[in-house]
Amino acid sequence: MTALVRTLALPAAALTFAGCVEFAPYLADPRPQLAGGDGVERVPPNHPNRFLIGSADDAVIGAPQIVLAGETDTLSDLAREYGLGYDEIVAANPTLNPWLPGRDTAVLLPTEYVLPDGPREGIVLNVAAKRVFYFPEPPAETDDGTSQVVLTFPVGIGRVGWETPLGEASVISKAVDPTWYPPISVRQEHAELGDPLPAVVPPGPDNPLGTRVLKLDMPGYLLHGTNQPYGVGMRVSHGCVRLYPENIEWLYDLVDVGESVRIVNEPYLLGRRDGEWYFEAHAPLEDDSMEPAERLDALVADTELAPALAGEVRAVASIANGVPVRLSAFDAVEVLARARHVENTVEVDPDAPTLEEVRQMIDEAVAEAETAEVQLGGDGN
């Protein structure tokens, strides 16, 4: 097992709560129910980033999807194609080989999301989910005037010791093809790792900021693209927020200077759709200042759930795979029954890195995060 797989697998396995033994079905391996696709009609996938909120009372968007992997598809390829980050798709498919799941292997796409609590305006980043939500202003509406549009994108965030800060912020400037001036702390770290950085990195393929930057009024922190898209959805940055190149270009064109940004840490998300409760659980960040059980108790206490549903919440939290579960079903794998079976739209890019190159890039990013000297702050990429 690689260092990357160990890093992704341990938090969820380590998260346990008293009483979970009563919910054995949640701990069962759902892979047999995913197996096979012969004779299943496959439909076009949902849009990877644009969703409608059905009403002001709804807090759940999207739908789970199942796709059959191609012969050379990696989970990273599938994640980017369907609007997911690397950690998200691995957490939802813990038994699969992330490098090569294999031809016609069924892959669960966790493309359903419970919205973070709070105002639905501007940019909202949930670091626990490694996902950003953008609510256009004024709210875009459908023809019948009832649905608000929300855009959501996976992001890379600050690793341990370089945490992405929480709080309220705003966009104070924007730039296309930015020049990067690595701060002294980042240059010192790279030098200690035998990978010295220049004082100035001009625009181009070697610039880790990519082609677009949104600068926040939190000194040193940015939302930006990347020249290493395979790290999106992981904790690999020096505190800044990384998006896929195509995602930051879209967001950049929509966001104006002055846009509000709210950064939260919500590993447990509870919301309704069509009157039914859904619960989404992520493994809490390793450096979370609040104990998982304490955070979960607070969420249950703040929501008037029936005792049975409260038990369901705790059972789903013990898995923490990021897949929203409809609580009234009393079955964690009910997700598979309502998942859409969709076409595989991944196209082979002749200029894309090879499998070994992708694996090396991700392993190097994780190794850097694990071995670098821990330094608090955040003024990098």
CATH topology of the domain at 118-265 and 351-381: L,D-transpeptidase catalytic domain-like
Q: What would you call the structural class? A: alpha+beta
Task: Just name the CATH architecture of the domain at 118-265 and 351-381.
Answer: Beta Barrel
Low-confidence stretches: 1-32, 369-379
- The proportion of residues in beta strands is 15-25%
The quaternary organization reads as: single chain
Strand order of the largest sheet: 1-8-7-6-15-10-11-12-14
Q: What does the radius of gyration come to? A: 20 Å
The CATH class of the domain at 118-265 and 351-381 is identified as: Mainly Beta
Intertermini distance: 28 Å
Q: Major sheet: size, sense and barrel closure? A: 9 strands, mixed
Name of the CATH homologous superfamily of the domain at 118-265 and 351-381:
L,D-transpeptidase catalytic domain-like
Shape: globular
Q: What helical percentage do the residues reach?
A: 25-40%
Total strand segments:
19
Task: Describe the protein.
The longest helix has 17 residues, at 355-371. The protein has a domain at 118-265 and 351-381: L,D-transpeptidase catalytic domain-like, CATH 2.40.440. It is α+β, with helices and mostly antiparallel strands. It is built from 11 helices and 19 strands. α4 (75-81) crosses α5 (86-92). It has helices spanning 3-14, 24-27, 31-34, 75-81, 86-92, 184-192, 245-254, 292-302, 307-317, 334-338, 355-371; strands spanning 50-53, 60-62, 65-68, 106-109, 112-114, 122-126, 131-135, 148-154, 157-158, 167-176, 212-216, 222-224, 235-237, 241-242, 260-264, 268-273, 276-281, 325-326, 340-341. Residues 1-32 and 369-379 have low confidence and may be disordered.
